[in-house]
Design a protein that fits this description.
The structure is a single chain. By secondary structure, the chain is mainly alpha-helical. It has a domain of 34 residues. It contains two helices and no strands. The longest helix has 36 residues. It comes from Pseudoxanthomonas kaohsiungensis. This is Lipoprotein.
Length: 82
């Protein structure tokens, strides 16, 4: 029986340590943090446009109302003789 003894006996703990060391050496390094991220393409413009359209319309209506109020005030001033 002593003829079957291997000169390097199998040790599970030693294999696990070697496997962890090998995996740790193979991990990817994180990207450098000093460089700003690459700009992304404008992908979601539909949602942005859906939000922006009512705001643009409201600005247009506001200008129309303000112009009408200015004209009305000018007419009142002219009627008062001022």
């Amino acid at each position: 029986m002593s003829d079957n003894v291997h000169p390097f006996p199998f040790r599970p703990a030693l294999c696990a340590i070697a496997l962890v060391a090998a995996l740790a050496a193979c991990r990817r390094e994180p990207p450098p943090t000093e460089r700003p991220p690459e700009p992304q393409a404008q992908a979601h413009t539909g949602l942005r446009d859906a939000i922006q359209a009512p705001q643009d319309k409201a600005h247009g209506v506001e200008k129309t109302v303000q112009d009408a109020a200015d004209r009305q005030q000018a007419e009142i001033d002219a009627a008062e003789g001022g």
